[in-house]
Amino acid sequence: MNISAHPTAPAETVSLPDAQNVVTTRHKAVELQQAAVVFGTGDKAVTALSPTKLILDKGDFVALVGPSGCGKSTILRLVTSLIKPSSGAVLVGGRDASIRHLRMGMAFQNPTMLPWLTIEQNVMMPLKIVKPFKSTFRQDRKGAFRDRVHALLGQVGLRDFAGHFPWQLSGGMLQRANLCRALVHDPDLLLLDEPFGALDQFTREELWQILQDLYLDRKPTVLLVTHDLREAGFLAQRICVMSARPGRIISDEVVPLPQPRAIDTIYTPEFVEMTQNLRALIAQVRQ
Amino acid sequence: MTEKQRIRLWSFSMIVGFFLMWEVLCIVLNVSDLVLPRPSEIIVTLWTKFPILWPHILQTLYSTLVGFSLGVMIGVSLGVLVGTSKVAYAVAYPLLVGFSSIPKVAVVPIFVLWFGSGTTPAILTAMVICVFPIVVNIATGLATTEPDLEDVLKTLGASKSEILWNVGLPRTMPYFFASLKVAITLSFVGAVLSETVASNRGIGNVMMTASSNFQVSLVFAGLIILAVLGVVLYALFSLLERRVTGWATRDTEIAIT
């Protein structure tokens, strides 16, 4: 298989101190142990997620695909502890997800920028909240943190828009800013919930490459929820397919392509065959 | 720009026209000074009596602003409590609604009974009258904050108070300022009300004494002063509002930083 060269590296990358990872090699980055989610009780109970087992090693890039409403986003909400499992356990870095000792970055499907803050202030928000950055936020927000945010915005082509408000930016630009906000605090664990869903094909492919560069640069653990099979195939090392509601993982395959991948990869016969197999699998479970 | 100037000009001529009409109608219909003095007479009274009126203006302004400030503090704290806690909402809301339905005129005698006549009941009346709209608006703003926005901070592991400071309260600012504009005018009503009932200082008292002495043009001068003060304070808060909540109206002038 012909893998062409790594797309031109970004002119500048944010330099980061060596991540002092709390995670030891003994622990998996993310572990769902037969975690299930049921909303409501009695007759009205709706099972959003059947008991599910999913393990991400440190530095893994895993994509979750499946029909709509199958519980993909539920898994992300479990990992970020926005909801608690009805049964089973969710471990992040070897401890319960509600104990946050891993730095998490999340990009939602909607950019959800805070409308009263400029793009720069929005992207800087995690530094104000997350340890250890928050302790020096007051001193650094005009200096080191500002440079960090600007460098990151530069990497996604938003340098000139740092002082703009969210409503002044297009959807694609907001998604880029969204990605920056998820990455600015150098997370150990990056959770992406269909972050490129509402974009046109060209913008999407451009952002895939940016994300791949950022991932290879820092190697966080990534869990990407998507309904775009090419996106999953291009970015992920492993693809998990979920069944229709109530969801569970029915297939967990390694993508046999070395990283970095060039955007042309998605038009090679091997890639097309892989996505078609996935497509057939999902079409089957939709029934 | 010309469009803006034209609107300003129209608005200005509306105001001047109103007073001109008043003047002309009084002359044409031969209205007695004791019923409705002409604007020109009121202005003359205002001018000649201004040195006497000035301390009263300050007194009313003082009672209003102190009462208003206390009201804002209480209103914001109660609003945050009611808006963030379901229990507080259920417990406090019926009480608040009940309390706010009491006509404030009826409360003044109680304040006078407790604190004697003078500045204290005026401040307290100005305070109680403006608490309710602030509470309701703050609570509404907080309760309607989009869960998506809160989730952004929750995934970062933010504490409840961090979410309140970084999402809840900024999101509530447009509601807060809307309520401030109502509250400041209500505070005026409260202070003047109390002054008319039980005080020997303040514009309310001046108007009361003037009307019992049939100094009708002085009564109207008091009204004009109150109107002007009200407009000035309203404008002040509008200005502040524009600076703080320009994001909500997508004001392009605040955007270029």
From TrEMBL, chain A:
Top-level lineage group: Bacteria
Positions of transmembrane segments: none
SUPFAM superfamilies with a match to the protein in the record: P-loop containing nucleoside triphosphate hydrolases
Molecular function as annotated in GO: ATP binding
Domain ABC transporter: 32-269
Record InterPro entries: AAA+_ATPase (IPR003593), ABC_transporter-like_ATP-bd (IPR003439), ABC_transporter-like_CS (IPR017871), ABC_transporter_ATP-bind (IPR050166), P-loop_NTPase (IPR027417)
Keywords recorded for this protein, A-Z: ATP-binding, Nucleotide-binding, Transport
Transport among keywords: yes
Classification via Pfam families: ABC_tran
Family matches, as SMART domains: AAA
Family: Belongs to the ABC transporter superfamily.
PANTHER family cross-referenced by the UniProt entry: ALIPHATIC SULFONATES IMPORT ATP-BINDING PROTEIN SSUB, TAURINE IMPORT ATP-BINDING PROTEIN-RELATED
Protein name in UniProt: Nitrate ABC transporter ATP-binding protein
Taxonomic classification: Bacteria, Pseudomonadati, Pseudomonadota, Alphaproteobacteria, Rhodobacterales
From TrEMBL, chain B:
PROSITE patterns per UniProt: ABC_TM1 (PS50928)
The ABC transmembrane type-1 domain, residue ranges: 57-237
Residues annotated as transmembrane: 12-31, 61-83, 95-116, 122-144, 175-194, 214-237
Gene3D superfamilies: MetI-like
Transport as UniProt keyword: yes
Membrane topology designation: Multi-pass membrane protein
Subcellular location, record wording: Cell membrane
Any one Pfam family match given in the protein's UniProt record, by short name: BPD_transp_1
Keyword Kinase listed: no
Family: Belongs to the binding-protein-dependent transport system permease family.
Name by which UniProt lists this protein: ABC transporter permease
Organism of origin: Marivita lacus
Source taxonomy: Bacteria, Pseudomonadati, Pseudomonadota, Alphaproteobacteria, Rhodobacterales
